[in-house]
Specification:
248 residues; 4 helices; 6-stranded antiparallel β-barrel; Thrombin, subunit H; alpha+beta; 2 domains
């Protein structure tokens, strides 16, 4: 009887030692051999899970930022003397009605209209920078929402960004002068491909009617004002140049 107990204990000890040896020494040795290398387990499942969590967090942050910034985007219409109509967007920068947009959207001698949350307030162009294509406008409104400007020094290549602008729905009975047009907020997202102190280049493609749309980072801070070329490629006047212009 005693002999059988010793046998059981011996088998248990040998099995335990063997298991530790196989796990800590034998298996790591063989797994590094070329024949077994492709079967390495490591911790990829944990890595994949982490990536999914990061993606979910970024998408949630984007949704929150879209909600945060929609009130600071202004629709702009300009009717030139020859009847040509320009459309675009602008950015509210102070609660008492200062906004910044592209100078190209406000040709001298044209009729301008600013759509602000369903209203068309009176306005005054305070200053222009033709060289840098910027204009500062004061609209008759107060208690307006605002958002922060991003720190230019923290902008990175590959950073996720989005624009938000206003597009106008037209009907046969609608004209600029009667102000029956309805503006709809629209958004698009991408990344920063390259940038310098003056301009940012993105991978976003968009319609030219959205030029002047504010470009935001994932936190909802302003990084620029959108420029759109004939091919629909979106770049932006940098936040640094905008802040220099408005005096912030």
């Amino acid at each position: 009887m005693l002999r059988n107990i010793f046998k059981v204990i011996a088998i248990f000890i040998i099995g335990t030692v063997g298991g530790i040896f196989a796990d800590q020494i034998l298996w790591p040795y063989f797994i590094e051999r070329p024949l077994f290398y492709e079967y390495r387990l490591e911790q990829s499942p944990v890595y994949i899970t982490e990536r999914k969590e990061v993606t979910i967090q970024e998408n949630t942050a984007l949704e929150e930022s879209l909600e945060k910034v929609k009130g600071v985007v202004v629709g702009i219409k300009s009717e030139k003397k020859n009847g040509e109509v320009l459309q675009g967007s602008g950015l509210i920068i102070t609660s008492d009605g200062l906004l910044v947009t592209l100078n190209d959207l406000l040709p001298i001698g044209s009729d301008f209209y600013f759509l602000l949350e369903g209203k068309w307030p009176s306005w005054q162009v305070l200053k222009r920078d033709v060289k840098n294509n910027l204009a500062l406008v004061k609209v008759e409104a107060s208690g307006l929402p605002t958002v922060a400007f991003a720190d230019f020094n923290t902008i990175k290549i590959g950073e996720r960004v989005f624009l938000m602008g206003v597009v106008f729905e037209e009907s046969e009975a609608t004209s600029t002068k009667t102000l029956l047009s309805q503006g709809l907020k629209t958004a698009n997202e991408g990344i920063i491909k390259s940038f310098n102190k003056d301009f940012l280049q993105t991978n976003i493609l968009e319609e030219k009617e959205l030029k002047g749309s504010p470009l935001f980072d994932i936190k909802g801070d302003v990084v620029g004002l959108s420029l759109i070329d004939e091919m629909g490629k979106v770049s932006a006047i940098s936040v640094k140049k905008i802040k220099d212009f408005v005096g912030f």
